[in-house]
Amino acid sequence: MASLGTPKFARFRVGVGRPLSPRVDPIDYLLSPFSRKERALLPSVRAGVADALILALESGLDKAMEVYNRPGSLGCTEVA
To answer: How many domains does the chain contain in total?
Structure first.
């Protein structure tokens, strides 16, 4: 936002979930390496993000948000 000088731009954010234990610092969780299960999901997440970007370009941001702003919409579910 600082580089563009405005907060008015489309952002595609991919969530990383939350720590399973309340004793885990969210910062440590966010910066930790992916687990084996999480790494296995990366190809489907990348493909889902690519599909969301294409839909946004072809049909608009509102349509992409309608389709992809829900759990499991990027081809994966939360890892437990």
So the answer is: 1
